[in-house]
Amino acid sequence: MWSFIWNDLLYQPLFNVLIWFYNNYAHQNLGWAVVYLTIFLRIILLPLAFVGERNKIRDVQVQEEIKKLEKEFRNDPAQLKTEIRQVARANKIHPWAKAISLGIQLLVLVLLYQVFLQGITGEKLLKTLYDWVDFPGSINVYFYGFNLGHINDIFWPGLVAIILLVEIYIDFKKHKKAGVEKSDLFYFVLFPAFSFYILWLLPMVKSLFIITSMFFGMIERFVIRAIVTPKKEEKK
Q: What is the domain range of residue 23?
């Protein structure tokens, strides 16, 4: 049962979409096929991203309300929990949206790893392809001179780490106006470093997937926030 779910419902469809992009849009470059697959996935996940970004904006307003409630009900924890739930419900905050989106992207990362683990040549390739996906022949696994299946690569994991550092720095600048704590500094350094190490151990294709997803996410957040963020009333 589990084998059917993993291979027939998850791995095989993803693999066929990847090869379809490889044949039709990527000019037989597997790296670009992964980029297109990532963008395709993020477009599918746009509704969840919209909910997640809306939650972030509303969360700022909710936190201000919660601070007031904490002062008002500081001697009544049970009532405080009830009031907080009501505030969250009134603002339609769905914490599951981001979790589902990240979970799906993590699943795709694992499936991409299996693609390179099982190989994408010969008889295995023919058995996995659907009838409507053309056989691509020999797969070009190089992306601008980098082997997508190569491990212990420094450049691409390093690029991911740098982007993470910049994103965290910008986030701190926006939301930590009162100053950062020691735990924030640990997060600022350790999270990119840990990400670099994990990606260094994995095939380079993982880094390419994450970088594409991160850049798409930046554009996505900019557009969604422009739509969702309430306009400030002009002072008369």
A: 2-143
Residues 147-163: tens digit of each pLDDT: 998 999 999 999 999 99
Residues whose CB is less than 8 angstroms from the CB of residue 168 and which lie 6 or more positions away in sequence, other chains included: 187, 188, 191, 192
Q: Which residues of 171-182 are buried (b: 16+ CB within 10 A; e: fewer)?
A: ebeeeeeeeeee
The three-class DSSP label of residue 33 is helix
The length of the chain is 236
How is residue 231 annotated by DSSP? P
By three-state DSSP, how is residue 146 classified?
strand
Q: Model's pTM, two decimal places?
A: 0.81
Nearest to 191 by CA among 221, 169, 213, 174: 169
| Separation between Cα atoms, residue 149 and residue 38, nearest integer Å | 17
Domain annotation covers residue 54: yes
How many structural domains comprise the chain? Answer: 1
d(CA 14, CA 114): 11
164 in Cβ contact with 207 (< 8 Å): no
Residue 212: inside a domain: no
Question: Beta-carbon neighbour count of residue 56 at 10 Å?
Answer: 15
Residue 131 lies in a domain: yes
143 pairs with which residues across the strands? 146
Q: How far apart are CA 134 and CA 91, in angstroms?
A: 49
Q: Which regions in the chain score pLDDT beneath 70? A: 91-95, 117-122, 175-180, 230-236
Percent of all residues in the chain with a pLDDT value above 90, rounded to a whole number? 35
Q: Is residue 102 part of a domain?
A: yes
